[in-house]
């Protein structure tokens, strides 16, 4: 059996010091491009893989990044993981996921214990957990590096990546009005979430500016689940007259609206236009396909990963100038010009 190549082998063949090889492996910037390329070529030819445990001990780091979430949308979690891993794997970090119960009394201590128990270098926190300022304060008090993905600017720019949901829903309002719609109903998310407030105010404020009021009976609160979308759609579609449009806080609930409309024999989009938010895989596969708002989740997660690595290594974040990203409207088959 062949002997496993060592860092000494790489240094010897490349004709450089072991320290220089270490710098290249650890992504340090103080190595010339030609030297870096030569060392990387030797690393690739030998199939050298640094011992992460030894590397972590030498740097007083574990090279582990945690992902904390309480989100039932598996597609969203998958997109986040792909975005984070695309950055972290190149930096030599591994990802450890930790689901939690955001509304439980012990969730803050649970999250802190996870970081301590797993010897995590830093964490990326997803919504709705990321909306907890109490958790952010606890992480900071314990000296734990963190970055939050949220829909509102609630932290220092190095600790946050913001999705401008308010602006995106403002665009949705203008689009629906451009189709001639005046009677618009809304299925909001849970009212205690920042994202719900941002999206609801984004669409209702713009509609008011355009001279369209949304009566209170046309706004119902869902739970961001398919089942709650069904329940809320039934409550709206039995009203007289029926709304021309239903905008749901996410695609899961919008899919519930499509189901109820089908059961009641209501043609979408002929008699009812439907729109959602997220643009997950479901949105393009349901019939009719959903008009929705697409968040660049993979890109946002990549920015969060660059930020957390920068905090861990006490360096400026690479290629990160902005921390606010605006989602954009995706127009599909579920919306069309008003028929009345």
From TrEMBL:
Protein name in UniProt: LacI family transcriptional regulator
Span of domain Rhodanese: 134-198
Ranges for domain HTH lacI-type: 5-59
GO-annotated molecular function: DNA-binding transcription factor activity; transcription cis-regulatory region binding
Natural source organism: Alteromonas lipolytica
Classification via Pfam families: LacI, Peripla_BP_3
Lineage start: Bacteria, Pseudomonadati, Pseudomonadota, Gammaproteobacteria, Alteromonadales
Keywords from the UniProt entry: DNA-binding, Transcription, Transcription regulation
Family matches, as SUPFAM superfamilies: lambda repressor-like DNA-binding domains (SSF47413), Periplasmic binding protein-like I (SSF53822)
Annotated PROSITE patterns: HTH_LACI_1 (PS00356), HTH_LACI_2 (PS50932), RHODANESE_3 (PS50206)
